[in-house]
Amino acid sequence: MLTIALSKGRILDQTLPLLEEAGISIPQTELKSRKLILDTNFDDIQVIILRASDVPVFVQHGAADFGIAGKDVLIEHGADGVFELLDLGISKCRMMVASEKDKDLNKSSLKVATKYVRSAKEYFYSQGKQVEVIKLYGAMELAPIVGLSDCIVDLVDTGNTLKANNLVPLDLIYEVSSRLIVNSAAFNTKHSEINGWIQKIKESL
Ligand code: PRT
Ligand code: MG
Do residues 170 and 105 touch, judged by C-beta distance below 8 A? Predict the structure, then answer.
């Protein structure tokens, strides 16, 4: 049995056509059900639908053979024990620092609100800045407005969410796209099977 871990949400919408093109399809009845393990057109391939940040965890521990997750999620997780084999070039966005216009971010101790603690810390430390990182799970844009933080670190796509909250993008931390990751042990034991599918997915890009 081959188990593929996919992120629910926006990545899923762009991943399903890729898998379909590669020959793996999930029946609509499966997708519409509330099942967490979905059957595919192959008896020996199943798909599990996870919270984006759980995808590298399942792949790292071998509970899934391969999976698809955003580079942001992989950087936050650390992605030990997984190989990143393919940049799928989908669900692109940018990890950015954002703040209110004209905000002075050159003060000695900066408060940063973010869901992406590792990305934020590594970025500001690399700039030689002392920061206090405040971990949030959503609605980061609110933090500078109500005085919880000086700035935020968040994903930006169109920039509309920032604009709607009177924030401006400042520094680019890194570019994000979705990556195909493989459990390193499974890549050895099921090499030909996994590699075959990776080649097919590559061709469908
Ligand atoms: O539910 P959960 O908290 O786990 O995740 P989520 O609901 O925030 O996001 P989900 O599951 O839909 O997808 C998350 C993955 O999609 C991320 O890990 C990225 O790799 C990728 N991705 C691509 C994005 C965006 N673009 C994006 N724009 N994830 C989130 N956003 C959010 C961003 O956080 C901000 O709130 O969209 C808003 C900004 O969008 P714009 O277009 O207004 O700039
Ligand atoms: Mg979500």
Answer: yes
Ligand 1 atom closest to Cα of 154?
34
Helix (H) or strand (E) holding 57: helix 55-60
Residue in this structure with the two tokens 């920061």, named with its chain if needed: 131
Q: What is the pLDDT of residues 5-51, one digit of tens each?
A: 999 999 999 999 999 999 999 999 999 999 999 999 999 999 999 99
62 torsion bin: left (phi>0), alpha (psi -120 to 50), beta (else): left
Find the helix packing angle between 10-22 and 191-204, rounded to 10°. 100
Tell me the domains of the chain and their CATH numbers: 2-91+177-204 (3.40.190.10), 93-174 (3.40.190.10)
Q: Whose CA is nearest to atom 32 of ligand 1?
A: 155
| Residue whose entry in the numeric block shows the structure tokens 């949400």 | 9
